[in-house]
Each structure stands twice: as C-alpha cells, then as structure tokens.
Design a protein that fits this description.
Order of helices and strands: HEHHEHEHEHEHEEEHHHEHEEEH
Structural class: alpha/beta
CATH superfamily of the largest domain: Type I PLP-dependent aspartate aminotransferase-like (Major domain)
CATH class of the largest domain: Alpha Beta
Radius of gyration: 21 Å
Length: 386
C-alpha cells in the first residue's frame, strides 16, 4: 500500500529515541538527569486539579461547542485585557486540543499547495510539518544572535516571494528562548501587512519571560492568528488544551474545520482551565516563573565556566541553545554519547534546525538547581574527554 506523499515529508522527532534510551537506562538503575523534554517538573497547580475533579464529579463530561466553553473563551479574553492591554472579542477565540490543534486549524486555513511559508530556522519542527501536511512549502530562514534568534522585519522583507502567503513567528521561541520586543514585533506586523500576507504567531511560552515583559501580537493588530496553550506557563501539559485567536472573518471557517477535525476539546480540561485565571493560581504560576528564571541563571553560570554559555541569554521559555561545534559536528552522536557516558539527556539540534543543527544542542532547564549543577559537572567530565 502506498501512503500520502505528504507524510514522507514529516521527519521523526529524534529526541524521542533518546528519551526511550534514557528511560531504559533508568530502568536498569542509572541516575539519568532529564534535560531533553520541554516539560518542567512542576505538577499542575492544585486549583486547576480541584476544578477538574469538581467538573468530573458534577458530570461535566458532555461535548462543548466546537469553539469551546463560552466561559473559558471569556476568561481568556479577560486575560488578554488584563495582562496585555488587548481587547479580544471572546467570539474570536477557539479552544483546541493543545496548541497542536490550533496549529492544525491555522495551517489548514492559511496554507495549501503552491503557497510558501516563512519561518525562522531553528524552529519547533511541528511548525514546519503542519505546513507540509497542508501541501505548502516552508522557507526556513536561518537566524542567529545578530537577529536575536528571531525572524525580524528585515528578514521577512528580504525573503518574501510572490508565492509567500504566510509568515510564522514564535516568541518566546523553542528552541532558543528568545523574544521579539513590542517594537520589533510591530515592525513584522507592518511588513507582512504591506505584502498582503497573513501572520501566525506562536505564543505558547508567552507567560514565561525573564528579562522582557510578556507581550502579545493581539495588542498590536486584530488581524494576526495567535496560537497559545495551557501546557507551558499554566502547567497543564497532559490536559491537552490550547487556543487560537483569529481575525473575525476567519472564525466561521475555522469553526467548521474544528467541527470536522476534532469536534471539540476535552470538556473536563476546559472546566479545569477556568481555575488557571484565579488569583491564587496566578500566584503559583508566577512563583514558578521566578523559579525557572533562577534555574536559567544557575545553568548559565555553570555553562559559562565551561565556555559554553550562549552569547545572547534566552529571555523566555525554559531552553538554552548551545553551540557545540568545537567539540562535535554531529549533535545526535554528541547527545547519545553524553547519555551513555554520563547519563545526561539533552536534545540534538537537528530536531529544530535545518541549517546548523548538527552543531547545536538544546538543554531544557526543567529540573531543580541541584540537578542542573550536577548535570554541568557531568558535562564537564564528558567534555574533558573530547
């Protein structure tokens, strides 16, 4: 049997094979430090868990509308108004099964055969893959410290083609953790608008900012498509819940897509997520953000001693993007060896970058400071043998 040719364009997520090896080593009794997966070691906040349990006990297990629970859409709109000064009509918000559900809707609406999509390289690989499934071609634009590891307005203008339909940003980004500030984001908005294109912005790490205030493109324009999630800042990874903010004219076709693709997001998860906006939950989440900032600083200090700290520290998310070119030109082999020799699991850059990924690795500071310091010590031993 032959498969859809578009599926052949979807590369495997290489870190998953490393995770499997790491878990096997743990099962064999090795002390593995996990810095490979984008999931902090925090449990879902207690108010959210309690709300989910209450929803189940109350029998809140039937379908919601395809666009989501009205109360949750209103709560998200209130979140934008309170924290970002953005007036977002709840009718423009669609609740989705994770940010992946939002990306699926947006890619199917905005991209198709013959279209080209601009995005940064490195980038979260699923962003490319969703566009490939839609039949579009991705122009992955190499970024570096000079552009702040972001696809800025100058790069958008330089790489825009007649066939370009869409530019996609991620701020803060995965894997680099870097952001566009308000002025640079507004410049991208203007550049894309002047070319008659659409703008899709991944803001799933939006609340996890350390050096710059969190911002949303929704405060700059009502015409952008905005992807967000309850996974990262809100600590609800396994609940699989996200949302998409869309221009008013796009809501109806997106709703039709949602009805057919996934019908509706999880009802208990939606009721649980209402508690994420309560003041007591916000206090928990902000304390965790500060803790991640301390972890970032501790890891940067340790890596500085090894001469490996990035020249431009990440301003958000919970990742460091490290250049290992003086030690290896094969990041996958580097990561496998580090795991086998020192039981430290990190992610090869080839998962994220089409250009230069073999010279980079991603480290997730998703565990406590003591474990991060131990990881640096093990890395130091490992590098001494190179």
């Amino acid at each position: 049997m032959s498969w859809n040719a578009r599926v052949a364009r979807i590369a495997p997520f290489r870190v998953m094979s490393l995770l499997e090896i790491a878990q096997a080593r743990e099962a064999a009794g090795h002390d593995v430090i996990h810095l490979e997966i984008g999931e902090p070691d925090f449990a879902t906040p207690a108010p959210v868990v309690a709300a989910g349990q209450a929803a189940l006990a109350a029998g809140q297990t039937r379908y919601t509308p395809a666009a989501g629970l009205p109360a949750l859409r209103e709560a998200i709109a209130g979140h934008y108004a309170e924290h970002f000064g953005a007036e977002v009509d709840p009718a423009r918000i669609l609740i989705t099964p994770g940010a992946s559900g939002a990306l699926l809707l947006a890619s199917q609406l905005l991209a198709g055969p013959g279209d080209r999509v601009l995005m940064a390289d490195p980038n979260y690989p699923c962003n490319r893959h969703f566009m490939a499934l839609a039949g579009a071609e991705v122009d992955a634009v190499p970024v570096d410290a000079k552009s702040g590891w972001q696809l800025d307005a100058e790069l958008v203008a330089r790489h825009w083609r007649d066939e370009t339909r869409l530019a996609m940003l991620a701020t803060p980004s995965n894997p680099t953790g870097h952001m566009l500030d308000a002025d640079r984001l507004a410049a991208v908005v203007d550049t894309v608008k002047a070319r008659g294109g659409a703008l899709l912005v991944d803001e799933i790490y939006q609340g996890l900012c350390f050096d710059l205030p969190p911002i949303s493109v929704a405060a700059t324009t009502p015409d952008a498509f905005v992807v967000n999630s309850f996974s990262k800042y809100f600590g609800m990874t396994g609940w699989r819940l996200g949302w998409l903010v869309a221009p008013e004219a796009a809501v109806e076709p997106l709703t039709r897509l949602a009805q057919n693709v996934f019908l509706a997001a999880s009802t208990p998860a939606q009721h649980a997520a209402l508690a994420a906006f309560m003041p007591e939950c916000r206090e928990i989440l902000e304390a965790r953000r500060r803790e991640l900032g301390r972890r970032r600083d501790a890891l940067l200090a340790g890596l500085s001693r090894l001469g490996l700290a990035p020249s431009l520290p990440p301003q958000g998310a919970f990742y460091l993007w490290l250049d290992i070119s003086r030690y290896s030109d094969d990041s996958e082999a580097f990561c496998r060896a580090l795991l086998e020799e020192e039981n430290v699991a990190i992610t090869p850059g080839t998962d994220f970058a089409l250009s230069g990924g073999e010279h980079h690795v991603r480290i997730a500071f998703t565990t406590g400071e003591a474990r991060l310091e131990e990881a640096v010590s093990r890395l130091e031993r490992f590098l001494a043998r190179r």
